[in-house]
Design brief:
Elements lengths: L12 H8 L4 E4 L12 H7 L3 E6 L17 E2 L6 E4 L9 H4 L4
Parallel strand pairs: 1-2, 2-4
Antiparallel strand pairs: 3-4
Length: 102
């Protein structure tokens, strides 16, 4: 019997990249957002030129903030992409940020 393989969308990016090419994507993610090869989804989208900004929950994009710690907006050191906190002063995504995304 053949084993079924379940892949996350990021693991199938080559199949749908053409339809995303040129898009401005904002990604809500955390340290668990990874490919089957344990590569962060944010890094994959950035390398493809699709990532405009990130939205991060309590522990920050890369998990470096302790539980309950204050997370403010920042620039992700690895990609240089603006990262907006969903666990800081506001838990809402600003309209001006959303309007710049596809």
């Amino acid at each position: 019997m053949k084993k079924a393989v379940v892949l996350n969308g990021i693991d199938r990016i080559d199949e749908y990249f053409e339809s995303l090419d040129g898009s401005r994507i904002g990604l809500i993610t955390n340290p668990t957002g990874i490919s089957k090869d344990f590569k962060p989804t944010a890094d994959i989208l950035f390398e493809r030129g699709l990532l405009c900004c990130l939205f991060s929950p309590e522990h920050g994009l890369r998990g470096g903030v302790t539980a309950g710690g204050h997370v403010s907006d920042y620039i992700d050191e690895k990609t240089g992409v603006p990262t907006y906190s969903l666990y800081g002063a506001s838990t809402h995504i600003r309209e001006d940020v959303i309007n710049g995304l596809d």
